[in-house]
């Protein structure tokens, strides 16, 4: 399966991010290759969102009564090894179920088991505990908002059997409100951005959250994210990309910051270009952005580097959209995007649950251009 992905990917990368953004019609081989990848990653998510074990829970115990199985603690999002992977596994299925009619039936079958009113109310109760105020903040909470955004868009597009999707959208509204309130309360109190390459990173979560806020027309939340993004990052210059990556990164702190800032400055692209040229001058373009070596795909931390390739690829793609056409800088970034995309997609191996439980989401976010569309 992995070998087959290589040839599929070469056509997909060319078709989805074409030189100078001049989109062309996809060939039949490219359509088949893209369809194959989507089905593969949908199957990966279906196989794991209700798989309870192995499971790593970030669980604060208040009493002996809190010693329970994952499906009792968080009955909607208990699979996929951990809570945030379960959330974004559901996002993957909502995304593909919405945009690929060949996958809609199986995706909806899996989603309807989780997105019930009762189960999502139990999620709210779990997160509402006073001692769980930092639970999955900000990474997992941002993926909740991405799931909400996908369902919101789906309700606008689905004609047949739309009542069920509307019901899911309503069922998750209380959890959505809790997440928005929690991030809104936390963000102004965050004195400094967290620049890690893992779940605690600030920039990546803000990018996902800003996309959501704009989609649902929550201008207050969007403005809060924009203001704090500028507070954190506007004065950054000469980012030291030579210090990346760390050995267990699945996100680039530098590229996530740039990808966030191109969103924040979307109304004034000239301002973003000025900022980006000082943040990462062409002369400073680092070889450290080449795909990293992944020596042990069975190690649950070292496999993070596959996710790094995928997230770098979509972040570079977003940044490229904002750069002038027909420039050497843009071409160099495009090549880095292409090489990281190919390295990441070809390294996904569903036989290793260490990566299989979450990498499908990163792959789908990339190949469906969610951060751009």
List keywords for this structure.
373 residues; mainly alpha; Glycosyltransferase; 17 helices; DUF2891; DUF2891 domain-containing protein
CATH third-tier fold name:
Glycosyltransferase
- Name of the CATH first level: Mainly Alpha
In helices, the fraction of residues equals: 55-70%
**SSE run:** HHHHHHHHHHHHHHHHH
Specify the biggest β-sheet: none
General shape: globular
- The total strand number stands at 0
| Average pLDDT metric | 92
Strand content: under 5%
Low-confidence blocks of residues: 1-7, 17-23
Query: Measured on Cα atoms, how large is the radius of gyration?
Result: 20 Å
Helix count from the secondary structure assignment: 17
Overall structural class, as computed from helix and strand content, comes to mainly alpha
How many separate domains? 1
Description:
The chain has helices at 2-16, 28-48, 70-73, 83-99, 104-114, 117-127, 139-157, 162-171, 173-186, 202-215, 219-233, 253-264, 269-279, 304-321, 328-347, 353-356, 359-367. By secondary structure, the chain is an all-alpha fold. It has a single domain (2-17, 27-367), classed as Glycosyltransferase (Alpha/alpha barrel), CATH 1.50.10. Residues 1-7 and 17-23 have low confidence and may be disordered.
Chart the SSEs and their pairings.
Elements: H1 2-16, H2 28-48, H3 70-73, H4 83-99, H5 104-114, H6 117-127, H7 139-157, H8 162-171, H9 173-186, H10 202-215, H11 219-233, H12 253-264, H13 269-279, H14 304-321, H15 328-347, H16 353-356, H17 359-367
Helix pairs in contact: 1-2, 1-15, 2-4, 2-17, 4-5, 4-7, 4-17, 6-8, 7-8, 7-9, 7-10, 10-11, 10-12, 11-12, 12-14, 14-15, 14-17
